[in-house]
Amino acid sequence: MQFSIRAFGPAGIETLQLEAASAEAARREALARQFQPISIRQAASWRRASGADFDLLLFSEELLALLSAGLALTEALAALHEKERRPAAAAVLAGLRTSLADGRRFAAALAEQPAIFPPLYCGLMRSAEGTSSLDSALSRFIEYRQRIDQIRRHVGQAMIYPAILLAVGGLVSLFLLGYVVPSFASVYQNAGRELPLASRWLLQWGRLVSEHAWAVALPGIGILAAVAWHVSSATRRGRLLESLRQGAARLPQVGQFLRTFELARLYLALGTLLEGGIPILAALELCSGVVSAAVRARIDEVMDHIREGIPASEAFDRCALATPVALRLMRVGEHTGQLADMLMRAARFHDAEVERFIARFTRSFEPLLMAAIGIVVGTIVVLLYMPIFDLAGSFQ
Description:
Layout: E1 2-9, E2 12-19, H1 23-32, E3 36-42, H2 56-68, H3 73-83, H4 87-101, H5 106-111, H6 119-131, H7 134-188, H8 197-211, H9 213-236, H10 240-248, H11 254-275, H12 280-287, H13 293-307, H14 312-318, H15 324-336, H16 339-395
């Protein structure tokens, strides 16, 4: 983030423009340059700093590689900072180095930048500090992120082709209705023949578009602008994915798929944290950041049950957060003392289930979508040419 700082310096009161991860980091940077800050404010920017400016997975992989090579944490961060060329990422690394130099622990330095480092990540690092196993914690997080990203990649790839089909089909339909149909309407207008009813309706639309193009186009533009504003507003508030999830959950089978996908993320995150040595209540609290609001409320209920002495498997079952497979695996894990491993197994099982659903959905949805687009375009073309077919039959 860019900060504007008014400060006392060697030449009197000056204004500094500094790139830093937070206002506190900007203040420390100014002090390091022998300036005494008077006021600090974030400079106006068209873009808010967020985790999208910083690749957390890449940072973790590079940091793990340097630590495995024998470098100390401060040396590894210095090396990453010196090689970084992106201003936003360099500011994040500079903030971490400054915090460590001020005597803060690594997890505390991470927690100062919550937009970059989520609570789950900070919790793993905090647990690793107690056991001096930072490299193991980084390995666990890297595995967790890679598995989450793999599922997201599969979902994204499955939607690319349908999105292209919808875009092409929509453009072709708009071209036919906005240009071709009005052109045919002017040709048939003075033909002096009785046209089929469906063709008359289509040609009436064509005449309407031809005579009142702006009156037809403006409402469409207004609807598109309203949809774009709603999506943009939901994105700024962080509610877009939640809205999409709630809408898709009403579709047959899709709701169950989304529930399975979210529970798999929960099991994976919880298993990762438990493997890192974090107590189950603290781990559940950290997991709240990776699930929807509805599941978050159920996690709070699970925590209340566990505080009452109820086993975790039964608490999950009571709060409808345990699939039949996960429930049995959790019971085995509680009896054997390997709850974290059983949760990871449940996550892998449901990840495979999600991938099978995506494959089945793609195989069935794409042909249906192609057929629907073909029917729409074909209907428009046939209705346009029906008067010509009728005229050709009269000549015979």
